[in-house]
Structure formats: C-alpha cells, structure tokens
Design goal:
It is globular, with a radius of gyration of 25 Å. By secondary structure, the protein is an alpha+beta fold. It has 9 helices and 11 strands. Strand 7, helix 6 and strand 8 form a beta-alpha-beta unit. The chain is 20% helix and 14% strand. It has 2 domains: 54 residues, no CATH class; 420 residues, Endonuclease/exonuclease/phosphatase (Deoxyribonuclease I, Chain A).
Length: 496
C-alpha cells in the first residue's frame, strides 16, 4: 500500500524540471587506446604458375597486375596489411621487389606507401607429401602437397607494417599435426577407416600454408597479427577432406585466442595459446562465408561468434550491385551482399561470398570498416573490374580501429563478443582523400554501427546511444519510472 501518494505524485514534475534544467551528465572517461590504425587484408592473387615467375614479374616496375595491386593498397594506405597468395621465396626477394618497385612508387595519382617492416615465412603449399592424398592412384603435385600447390611456396603470404614487427616473438604453426588437435575432424572413408591412413596422418600438418602470430609494437602496445589462409572447402568428395581441414584451420585461431590451446605447439616447440588479455587482429582469406558457399557448417562462426572477437562487418556499395547484375547463385544467397569480399563464378556456383576478414579482439574501438569495391561508375572500378579481373577476384578489406592499451575483458560468453555493426549504406559517406567511397576516412569520421547480416548463425547485439536532448529525454523517462517504483532492465538482442 502506498502511504504517501500525493508526495510521490508531487515528485514527478520536480524530477522532470530538475532534469530538463540540468546539463547532460558527463560520460565516463573513455579507456586509453592506441592511435587509430587502418589494418587490411588482401588476397592480391600475386601467385604465379611457375616457380620464380613472380620474381621475374616484380623485377621491373611494369607488371600491370602488380601495379594494380599496389595502387589498390595505396588507395587505402593501411598501417598493417596481410597479402595472401604472394609466392614465397626463402631469400625474401619478392617481398622487397614488390615494396621497392611497386608500393613505394605512386600509381595514377595515388601516394606511395612505405613499409619499413615485413615478414614472410615458409608454407606447406607445393611441398610434396609422398602420399596419395587425393586418392587418384598417383603421387604428384599439386594435389598431393601438404597444401595444394604446384611448387614450394606457391600461394604464400606476406605482412607489411609501418610499425616494428617483434621478430624475436613470432610464433608459427606450419608443422603442427592435424591429428594432435583434440576432436579433429579427420576425414574417413565410407567404411569408417581413415581417408589418409596412419602413416600420412603421422606427418600431416593442419595448416595448408602456415598460421603465424606476428606481434607488432604500436607505440608501446603490442598487437598480435594472426595471419593465415585456410584451404578452400571445395574440390573434395563425400569424405569432405578439404571442408574439414578448413574448419579445423579456423578452429586453431579460435582456440588460440580463447584459452583453449593447451594442446597446441608452435614450430619452436612452445605450447599454448595467446594470453586472454592480449590485443590481436585476425587477418586473411579464410575461404568461409557465414551462410553461403561450401564451408563445413559453423566454420567461420567459430571466430565470428567468439566472445573474444569483434566482427567489424566491412561493407561496400558495389557488393549488392554486382550480386544483382551477376545473378546466378547470388540470387539464392543468405548473407547480405553488402558484406561480400570476393567475386566468384555465379553459374552454377558459388557466387560472390564474404570470406576475407579483419577481426580484432573484444574491447577494440572500430571507427570504420569497408570493402574496397568501387561501383562501376567510379574511376577506380578499373582496379576491381569484372572477370577476367585486372587485379584479383578478392577485394581488399580494411578496418580503422583503436586497440585498448590496458586489458579489456571479453563479453559474457553466453551473449557473444563485443560486436560493432556495419554502417547503414545509404547514409552520407565519410569524407575521403581518395576518389573512391571505400577508402578510409579520417579517424574522427567514425560511424555509429547499425545493422548486421540479414541472416547469420552469429550474434548481433544492438547498440543504443543517447546524447544531448535525447539523453535528457531518456533520463527524464528513467526518473518517472523510478518515481513509480519500476525500472526497465536493459536487454540485449541476438542475431539468430
């Protein structure tokens, strides 16, 4: 029973008057962060069909495809970039030639980009296994390599950085055996026996290229670049050997960042994963779309729904346009084409997909995230084009973000990671120094996240922000509810 109804009622206008007359309360101080960094991943298709061919192509500054790849990178000018499908040579000559002859030379008005630091390492592609891995009765490359490839080093990758790479702390997982992952999805024959056999599995690496943890010193804060390029989940049979390997290659990073890697040993014999308070960004072509394509169910969701990961959800205007124009398999897709990062065959399949990712740790502030995919009327469309592509069938993907300089706790594992949501595409574009709308805007032009996939196996928490008069209105409402004795709890939505 309410003892003083008149007193309670009298408090309502008083509370509203006080709130309306008072300035909005100051926001809590933002946690310390690094300066804004633009970090990108790009499968640039700088692989060649013969060993040494990439070196020959990069030795002079007149290779059109390499120049297109370099200009694409210059238009975004990332601070850190992973380039997939960049043939590896042990002396690192290709890394230096691309940097000197292409990245540090301006193309079509784009400013040169200088990367004092770079890393490339050996990979399993093109390394002949000595076993008949595909079951065709013979042992030969490319199918019977530990990773699909015509020669050692084909389809490797390189990381370029404007910040120092802490080379003494690099960890690689090229030689970790697939069978040593607990619960590994090892393929079997119809009779239940091992597809590969015990002898092959005793030497079979999980990583089709390599997995590399590259700690980078960003003005005193370490950010771990987790780089990989899992095998495509295609080109197999009922045993699903490639689908399952792709799933477990993605799982390696999911376990590594989530304190579930007690089984995992690196190439130096060091066991264990990343500290749970470490900053990281997962980069690469993971050959897995959340809803479409050939992936084993839930493959990329191992990362996208991790409470340790922020899904930056990069977008482009061209993705939906190209999906509509190309038709075919795209018409049946479930993932919104605004997120597509690759332009693949549409008839009969797989169509365009989201398979390239920039995924930082929870607690990272994401200002902006884009897929570099100019529309057809944009002068820079010449860099992406249509098949046969002038540069690559993948699009450069980038995000501009600030990493915490102190440990940031992960969200409740039951509700998923701290997930910013992609910008609404029909809002005005942030100003850009380059002609394309998919190039980075100034850090001060960060957007409020809005919506996620139209359908996804992941989670999509909503974010609400109130400032100025909106904040006063919200506070007034809260005061009214408090006076009546009922405060509504804040709820969290999830993407189904």
């Amino acid at each position: 029973m309410m003892k003083h109804p008149l007193a309670a009622a009298a408090c309502l206008p008083l509370a509203c008057g006080l709130i309306a007359a008072s300035p909005a309360p100051a926001h809590a101080a933002a946690p310390p962060t690094t300066d804004a960094l633009t970090i990108a991943t790009f499968n640039a298709s700088l692989n060649r069909t013969a060993e040494g061919q990439l070196l020959a192509d990069l030795a002079a500054p007149d290779n059109e495809q390499a120049a297109n790849a370099a200009e694409t990178i210059q238009r975004v000018s990332p601070d850190i970039i992973l380039i997939n499908e960049f043939d590896y040579d042990p002396q690192g000559r290709a890394v230096d030639l691309f940097r000197t002859n292409y990245l540090e030379v301006g193309h079509n008005g784009a400013d040169p980009v200088v990367y004092p630091y770079a890393w490339a390492g050996p990979v399993n592609t093109g390394s002949l296994s000595g076993f008949d891995l595909n079951g065709d009765g013979k042992i030969a490359l490319p199918d019977d390599g530990w990773g699909f490839g015509a020669f050692p080093g084909q389809y490797g990758f390189v990381v370029y950085s404007k910040y120092p790479i802490k080379t003494d702390e690099i960890r690689t997982f090229q030689n970790f055996l697939w069978k040593d992952m607990p619960g590994a999805l090892l393929p079997t024959k119809e009779d239940g026996t091992s597809w590969y056999g015990d002898d092959a599995l005793a030497a079979f690496p999980l990583s089709s290229k390599t997995h590399a943890d590259l700690p980078i010193d960003v003005d005193g804060t370490t950010v771990h670049v987790l780089a990989a390029h899992p095998t495509p989940p295609s080109f197999d049979g009922p045993e699903q050997r490639n689908k399952k390997r792709n799933f477990d290659e993605i799982r390696l990073w999911a376990d590594y960042i989530a304190d579930r890697a007690d089984y995992l040993y690196d190439d130096a014999g060091v066991v264990g994963g990343l500290p749970v308070d470490a900053n990281f960004v997962i980069l690469g072509d993971y050959n897995s779309d959340p809803l479409d394509g050939d992936s084993y169910p839930g493959a990329i969701d191992q990362l996208l729904t991790s409470p340790r990961v922020v899904d930056t959800l990069p977008v482009s205007k061209a993705g939906p346009i190209e999906a509509r124009l190309q038709g075919g398999a795209n018409a049946q897709h479930l993932t919104d084409p605004i997120y597509d990062t690759g332009d693949f065959g549409d008839d009969p399949r797989p169509g365009n997909l989201r398979i390239d990712y920039v995924l930082p740790n929870a607690g990272t502030q994401v200002n902006e995230a884009r897929v570099f995919w100019p529309t057809r009327e944009d002068p820079l469309f010449r860099l992406t084009g249509v098949h046969p592509f002038p540069t690559s069938d993948h699009r450069l993907v980038w995000a501009r973000m600030r990493f915490p300089t102190a440990a940031a706790p992960a969200d409740d594992p039951q509700t998923g990671g701290s997930q910013p949501i992609a910008p609404v595409p029909d809002q005005p574009e942030a100003p850009s120094p380059q002609p394309s709308p998919d190039t980075p805007a100034d850090a001060s032009q960060g957007r409020t996240p809005q919506t996620a996939h139209k359908g996804s196996r992941g989670k999509n928490p909503s974010a609400l922000a109130a400032t100025g008069s909106s904040a006063l209105t919200a506070l007034a409402g809260a005061a009214l509810l408090a006076a009546g004795g009922a405060l509504l709890p804040r709820t969290r939505r999830s993407r189904r």
